[in-house]
Amino acid sequence: MTAAFDGATSPADIPGSPLHAAFQQPLMLGLFLPIQNGGWSISTLPRGTDWRFDYNARLTQKAEALGFDLVFGLAQWLGKNGHGGALKYREQSLDAFIATSALAAITERILLISTVHALYGPWHPLHLAKFGATLDHISGGRWGINLVTGHVASEWAMFGQPMIEHDERYVRAAEFVGVLDTLWRSDANQHIRTKHWQLNDAFVSPRPRFHRPVLVNATGSAAGIDYAVRHSDLIFITSPAGAAFDDAIAALPAHTATIRESARRVNRRVRTLINPTIVCRPTEREAREYHDAIVAHADEGALDGFVGMHGKSDAKAWAQHKREQRILGGNLHLIGSPEQIVEQLLALKRAGCDGVQLTFFDFEPDLAYFGDAVLPLLVEAGLRVPASDQSFHQPFLHTTS
Fold this sequence. Notes:
two-stranded antiparallel sheet, alpha/beta, 13 helices, TIM Barrel, 8-stranded parallel barrel, disordered C terminus
């Protein structure tokens, strides 16, 4: 099967594609799955959040039922005891590529984004192009890759490799994804010659339904933004001013404007998503008490390990995040009643964020409460279109040749 899409450069350009449907939402909703123990919060306050697949499968199905647009997971490489502390924070973790892909079998609509350190170890673009084409086929065009370059020297060392310099990593990533794109779009054998890859009579089937799978990148640096606006459909951004909401909302408009202008210069439009951790209760007082209890149970040993590792990173995106903000986790903190959470999400939209990838402290009950108490208010505020009103969710009809 082949398909002709005149003028389309991205799955988002193609009516009927899952990404095109997601882009019709005024504010995209994503869920950052806790496929590592401790999730995003370095706290010993009792909760049910679990890294195991069955738990994350339930979260994904709940998110899909609520109308969320996408889910994805973190990719990491940590040694014994993880970041340490009583939690052995993130010692246990599922591989994001395998775990997220496996969700295709139990979902129908939601986008599934797999995070891959494409520059580590023995990854070959022909392997990933074939795996991606297969997952595109299995998922009905719902699979995508969050291609990350690796900013922690100890992870590179696990693979017996010296760490590549920051900006050079994005040059290498562009080369890698260029090979993927050529293979996904081609209906013939390809001879491909790049600085690091030589492919002879390379061919990948089945052809992806909408030119190629969804491409995603998380970045905050100038080199990363230049890469992302040229190659990605979604950019996971971070607050340039730390996790405190007021600080973030002051800094984000200039940041998102820079990204939009960079995309405009290369004749592309990308969408930005930011990662808030939401602490929501019926009243602001109850939400603050919940937040304070989480912070009061900080695992100081794990916090030392986590902050210490990031202190050795050359990533630009998290430089302004304070130690105490890492306890709750996430890129910024949304705390308050359902009405206050909606106001904060409206503010993020006005600041140029096209969507949010949410995390919670106690994922299952907190996600359920978000669905019951916040989501209807998002619809009222015009930030979400109910599934029943989404006329753009039309089945895609293949053409054959």
